[in-house]
Structure formats: C-alpha cells, structure tokens
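Researcher: Quick one. three chains, 684 residues in total.
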Amino acid sequence: MTEPKMPLWEVFIRARSGLAHRHVGSVHAADAEMALQAARDTYTRRGEGLSIWVVPSAAITASDPADKDALFEPTASKPYRHPTFYDIPPEVGHM
Amino acid sequence: MYTQALNQADTGPKVIEDADKLARFEAKIDAEERIEPNDWMPEAYRRTLVRQISQHAHSEIVGMLPEGNWITRAPTLRRKAALIAKVQDEGGHGLYLYAAAETLGVSREELIDQLLTGRAKYSSIFNYPTLTWADIGCIGWLVDGAAIMNQIPLCRTSYGPYARAMIRICKEESFHQRQGYEIMLALCRGSAEQKAMAQDALDRWWWPALMMFGPPDAQSVHTEQSMRWKIKRFTNDQLRQQFVDATVPQAHYLGLTIPDPDLRYDAASGHWRFGAIDWEEFRQVLAGNGPCNRERMEARRRAHEEGAWVREAALAHAAKRRARAAAAKIAAE
Amino acid sequence: MTTIAVAETPLVLSLLRLADTALVHSHRLSEWCGHAPMIEEDLALANLALDLLGQARALYAYAAEVEGAGRTEDDLAYLRDAPQYRNVLMAELPRGDFAFTILRGFLLSAWAHPFWQAAARSADAQLAAIAAKAEKEAAYHVRHTGEWTIRLGDGTEESRRRMLTALETLWPYTGELFEADAADRAMIAAGVLPDPATLRPAWEATVTRVFDEALLPRPADGWMQTGGRSGRHTEHLGHMLAVMQHLQRAYPGCTW
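Model:
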C-alpha cells in the first residue's frame, strides 16, 4: 500500500517584534493547527521566534525562473528610481 | 561521513542535456551562485542531490537510535536533559533535510519508503552498538566531531535549500560535540572503572569514526563530479586528516590512548599520520553486516508501521473537518 | 551509595510528589524519542519530556534545599527506591501506544495547568516561581495533547478504538490527582499549595470540552486506584527505576 501523503506547510517566523516574518523551513501536518504546533516544536526550540505563520505549500504561487529576465531585467535600466541619480550641491546639505 | 552518498556512482539513465542550458548552469556554479529549486539543472545533478540529501536525512533519523538507547539510563538529570535535546536535534535535522530533498520533487513518504525497503543507505557509523555510557561521550566527541568537519563545508554547497538546511544544522550542532567531550572528561577524571569505560569506548569508536569520511580519494571516483558541481568541497582524505589532527590532542588531554600503534606526529607537515584503515570492515558494514544493521532497520520499520494508524487518523480527521466546513457553508447559503 | 532516607516534612513531601510525577512522566515520554509516528511528533514529545524534566529538576533542587541535608537533585532522583517515590500512579504506567501516551498527557496536563496557575500565587515564593514557569509549559501541553485527543477520538475507527481502550485503562487513575492527606492539608492551610478540590472544576471543564469535540464519553467515576503518593506503586515503577538508576547503582558514588 502506498502511504497517503501528509500535507507540506511552509513556516514563517517573526524573530522579534518589529521584524517581518521570514521563511525558515517546512513541516508536514494533516491540518493547520497541527502544522502550527509542529512549526513551534521544530523551529522555535532555541527562542527563535515570537510569532509563526504556516501556509500550505500548495497555496504558494511562484514565479518561473525562466521568466527571470522578463520580470527582473527591465528594472535595471531605471536608475532614476534611486536617490543617487539626482545631483544636489553639497552646500544644500543632507536630503 | 554524511557525504558517503557522494562516493556512489550515479546509476540513473544517461540524459542528453541541452548544451546551452548546461553551459549556463555550469557558469552559475563557477560564479559561486546558488542553484534554487525551480532552476534548470542537469538530471544527474538532481539525482545526486536527492540521493545525497536523503541519505543525510536518513543518517540523522537512524542516528537517533544508538543514542536514544541511553536516554532512559542517563546517569544524571543534567545529562538526561542534554541527551534528550541532542537526540531531538537529530530528528529536527532529519526533518530539515527531508524538506530540502522535497524541493527537488520527491516526497517524504517516497524517501522514507526508500530507506525502509533498503534502497537507500545511511551513514555506516550508526550500525555500531552503544554498549556503555562512555559510548554516548564518544559519539558526541568523535561522531559529531567528524560530522561537523563534513558539514561545515556543506553550508556552502551549491544547492540553496541544502546549504540553508546545513547552516541551521551546524548552528544547532555546536553543542553536540562539547556535550560528548564533557562526558568523556567526567569519565576520565573519575574512578578507574570510569576511565576504563572511556578507553574501551574510544577503542571501539576510533576506527569507525575515521571510516565515516568514506573510502580513500584514490578509490572514490565519483567525488570528482560532485566537487566540480560544488556539492562537495573537500575530498574524503582531506577531511579525514583534518579530523585526526584535531582529535589526537583532545584524546591526549583526556589521558586516553588512540588505538593505533602506527600513529605518529609528522613535524615536517604538521600532521598526525595514522595507520591503515580496515576497509573490508567498512564494506561489510555498508553491505548490511554491521553489528546493528538489522536492529536499526527493524526499529525504524516498527516505528513507521506502528505510527501508520496515527497518521491515517490525523488525515481522516482533517478530511472530516473540511467536509463539515463545506456542509456548514452550503447550509448557510 | 545506598538508598537514602529523606526527612519528609509536609513541604518536602509535597515537593517530592510534584517532582516525582514530573520526572516519571518525562521518562515515559522520552521513551518515544526516535520511535514516534512522524518526525514532527518525535520533536513534540521530546519537548514535553524536556519541560517536565526541567520542572522536576527545579523541584528536586528546592526539596533538597528545604531538607537541608546537603543532597542534590540527582541524589533524590537516583538514590530513592520505588517505595520512596511519591508520584501519582498514572505517570508510571508503561508507555503504551500513541493513544495511551496522548491521553495520559492530556489528563495530567489538564490537571497540572490549573494546579500551577494556583501555585503561582503560593505563599512560598520559590514554589510560586517554579509554578509561574510550569504554568506556561502546562498550557501548551494541554493544547498539544488536547488537539491530538480530538484527532484520534474523531479520526478513524481504529484510532477511536485505541482511545477508548486507553480511556478505560487511565480513568481509574484520575482520582489520585484530587486526593488530599494530612501533609497536603497542612500545606493548603499554610497557603503553600492549592486545595485540589478547587482544581476540579477547571479540570472537568477542559476534559469535557476536549472529549465533546473528540466524541469520547466521559467515563463514570467508579473505583479509583490510589497509593503512589504514599509510595505504594504499580509493578511498573520498579522496572523503570531499575533502568533509570542503573549507572548510579552499578558505580556508586561516581561523578558523571
């Protein structure tokens, strides 16, 4: 008999208040509550977190690496989005 | 040790790879960029990684057994807490590694099935028995010490999820070796019986620990491809020598004798030169003839089979909940 | 070193009862390490075991300090034989299957949580400090074992059958959680320990909430087993201690 698959969940942890949740790994669990507990028992054993998100891995839509150029190259030619693009005389001071 | 899988041949079907894609892939590797899950990769790279990462994971999981054997007999409450935490860590490391392998498109269920049906291997070291408390000291000191030598370079391995898992693992494992050495120190500073226990354990674990790094480079032909793809970064013999150099002075500090009459310090090179390793023993243990191969696999199979009803119940309950939520939604509409 | 005789003043006895229950339960949980139904649960059960072991150590250390005979946590754990152990019987029953482990964990933590909550307001500052930490741990133990109780009770036919079997075995051991003898009454009067009768409503409420969702019947309170808190144990504790104390007994007086 093939073993039925236990759903996979992605785990995100907020290390300290003020920081965003960050992806730390994954766990297997049948439902969201058990996934949350598994994440707590697996990824916060050394005081790594104050808040946990678990998301079904299947719910994540990812960009295709093959689209990397189309998605991310065009931005490289738009330096006017960065403050260093603009010349301000030093005597004006910090801006 | 944990890269023993990289000493095996990739026996999968030969795939003719797209030359352009292969060139871009190899350029990325050469530029020290990481390969991520959805990136294009040659089939042989994927297969090598699945085999390597899953065997690493299996080693962590099977590795829980020899040390777990002493959890109920740890001699003090402090040692008991440390040992539970350590064996728990091994389980966590197995979990991180299975998850890293899963990013390559293979499920945990399939990987565990490969282990339980004997199609996948795990580190040879865990087929040796833990006969006395000193073995727990020796495992921490020597086995984890060897593992760290092996695992630190893996933090820079070319496959992103594997490298990230290894960074977390190395951080967590930093207490394991110290824990083991501290046990050895207490024994060596203790009664004559305790010191004899420590020496006996070293006598039994020394050579298997050296074997953990895998066959000599001259016989390990498959290392070359893995080195080129930066899955592996040092050769078996380099790591083994590094381990011996680090460990011999630690044994001397304990007042213990390394069970190798040929061991001597080579002042010119600054290395400890050691005697011949019995590779026949290594081959026999890998072939399933170690003292504990059968017991280890039986214990894993039993845990898996006895846990089947629990996993089924969890899935059944989740299905019931979904059905109830759906029914409630329809009723509300 | 031979078996020690502890001078059991009411406070020392009370601390030993709590410490022994935590240690023995922790030991049973730790027997799962490497053998759980899935890796996530290996980690979870080890966490429960470590919490309880931490509680036991703090309580032993305090008991040794109160006794004032220069003993250590390890003397108390490793050099008393079964008749000197004061844990409730439920904690020492063999590991059993996962249903049994979960249900035992649930019944004990559903008691421990209100107990530590109340003990956090103890007139004894040191016990109150131990309790404040243990209370949070117990709250998670209720959550973890409670959620599993629901899933196993309302899972498959097999999981339900196993839960019902475990329930039948464990229920007669729940009475001991609410006993109070002369030593307990002295501690209650001094404001050191909560009156177990006051813990019952919270325990009942937790059990009822979880059992309702798990579709498990709350058994009738029939004959209750007793004796652990005064040293009359099941046959199982002796075997457990023979294993646990092996090194300290085989090599007396050594440092490990």
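The first strand of chain B starts at residue 264 and ends at 266.
Researcher: Thanks, that's what I needed.
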